[in-house]
Amino acid sequence: MLNEIFDACTTKMQGSVEHMHRDFKTLRTGKVLISVLDNVKIDYYGTPTPLDQVGSVIATDATTIVVNPWEKNLLQDIESAIAAANIGVNPNNDGDQIKLFFPPMTVEQRQESVKQMKVMGENAKVSIRNDRRDSNDKIKKLEKEKEITQDDSKSAQDKIQKITDKFIATIDSTLKEKEQEILKV
Question: What is the predicted pLDDT for the residue at 185?
Fold first, then answer.
């Protein structure tokens, strides 16, 4: 019974950390990532299709992404979709491929990315704390219904706190690493 609560709590907290990592992919760091194009969809024969399914998307260097469509007649559609996505750069169509040139990040842009990253980290911590509260409430309910003793309840809540502390520490170390990555010129 308690092990189910521990497992459910751990799973939820792990999900919060994974969600934070997915959010981090939307942040711009010193090196441009092809994940900035993840939300760009192309109308491919009437179906909204992700960009990486209609051509190759490659980061050729720290500031350039090249989109090479498998069908050349899609160039205009891809160019329009990227322009509409408002990712901060204008697509350059050379007739064969589309190149995106991202300007180097300024110090202010880097600091703004760090602020966004810290907000994402804090949201993950709040989610983890909510998971801790929910788990502790389930444990207290078991104690109130006399299914576990007061000592079992106390030790179970201590274990939930240790699980929480582990995930909070993981988030803190991830935030520190990501901050160094963003601020590195």
Answer: 66
